[in-house]
């Protein structure tokens, strides 16, 4: 696979959001999650992270309720 922006370069990673091939220059590493540098993809990853935290808190609340019961 080649970089979406540089057709002569090999892709080093793939954007988790839009699936485009990315070279090192075009890659954005958001704490281990690779995306392209477009704002749309970067904000999507942040949204996913917020949801993961919310789900974790709900899960934790459920476990605490079970223990208290
Ligand atoms: Zn992308
Ligand atoms: Zn590139």
Describe the structure using short key phrases:
binds zinc ion; single chain; two-stranded antiparallel sheet; 69 residues; rod-shaped; two-stranded antiparallel ribbon
Order of helices and strands: EEEEH
Strand order of the largest sheet: 1-2
Give the biggest sheet: 2 strands, antiparallel
Radius of gyration: 17 Å
How many helix segments?
A: 1
Query: Which segments are poorly predicted (pLDDT under 50) over 5 or more consecutive residues?
Result: none
Number of domains: 1
Kindly describe this structure.
This protein has 1 helix and 4 strands. It is α+β, with helices and mostly antiparallel strands. The strands form 2 sheets. The protein has a two-stranded antiparallel ribbon. A two-stranded antiparallel sheet has the order 3-4. Bound molecules: zinc ion (2 copies). One zinc ion is lined by residues 3, 5-6, 9, 23, 25-26.
Strand and helix map with partners:
Elements: E1 13-14, E2 21-22, E3 27-30, E4 33-36, H1 39-68
Antiparallel strand pairs: 1-2, 3-4
What's the gist of this structure?
The chain has one domain (13-68).
């Amino acid at each position: 696979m080649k970089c979406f922006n540089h057709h002569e370069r090999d892709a080093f990673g793939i954007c988790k959001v839009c699936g485009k091939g990315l070279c090192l220059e075009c890659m954005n590493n958001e704490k281990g999650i690779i995306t392209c540098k477009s704002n749309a993809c970067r904000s999507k990853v942040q949204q996913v992270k917020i949801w993961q935290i919310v789900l974790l808190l709900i899960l934790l609340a459920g476990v605490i309720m079970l223990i208290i019961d």
